[in-house]
# Entry
Amino acid sequence: MDMSNILESRIEFKNGKLFRVTVLVEFSKGDVRAIYVDTIPKDGYVFLLASTELNAQLLQNVANYGAERPDKNDMFPKF
# Structure
């Protein structure tokens, strides 16, 4: 699988544990989306487990299998 073009990421913790990971991904020229995963299971999307480790592969998995956030401009105001 090709690597996604991740422009920026936002990592959130709750009570010292990984809670939400959001990545800003450029899918094609001009098509930039905020994609996220969190600890809440959603049908059709991956989610974070208590044992999930923060690493580059996790960011790629978020980009490829996460859900789109409608608040991209609030999350990543530079874009």
The chain has one domain: 5-75. The chain is about 20% helix and 40% strand. Residues 14 and 20 are 9 Å apart (CA to CA). The helical segments are 56-65, 72-75.
